[in-house]
Amino acid sequence: xxxxxxxxxxxxxxxxxxxxxxxxxxxxxxxxxxxxxxxxxxxxxxxxxxxxxxxxxxxxxxxxxxxxxxxxxxxxxxxxxxxxxxxxxxxxxxxxxxxxxxxxxxxxxxxxxxxxxxxxxxxxxxxxxxxxxxxxxxxxxxxxxxxxxxxxxxxxxxxx
Length: 160
Known about the structure:
This protein is an all-alpha fold. It has one domain (21-155). The chain contains 9 helices and no strands.
C-alpha cells in the first residue's frame, strides 16, 4: 500500500541549518583562498558527503543546492564563459587532480540545464563532490572578486 506523505514547509530549524551550511561554505571558500589548498573544502564539507540515513542525505542535498545556487549566482553576475578560467585557476593553485574533479561539477557555471546534471557525478567523486564546488567558488572569487570572499557573500545575499 502506498501512503501519501505530507511535505513539511521549511521552518526555523531548517532555516537555521541552511544558515549554518552557508557559513561553512563561506568559511571553506575563505580558507581555500588563504591556504591555496583543496583541504579546507574537504575539511569543511566532506562530512556531508555520502550519508546513509535519510537525514544525512537530506543535508547533503541541501549543501549541494546551496553550492549550485551560489555558483549560478556567480555565473549570472560575471557572465560569459567562466569554466575554463576557473578550472585553470584551480589547476594552478590547487592542482591538476582538483581541476579534473571540478570539471565534473562545473555545470552551474555553464547554465541551468548543465547544473541539473552534476548530481550524476556524486558517487564517482565521492568525498570530493561538494569540495569541488567550493574550489570553483574560490576560483571565481579570486578571478572576479579580487580574492575577497565578501564579494561572493554580497552576490548570494549574505552579509559579512
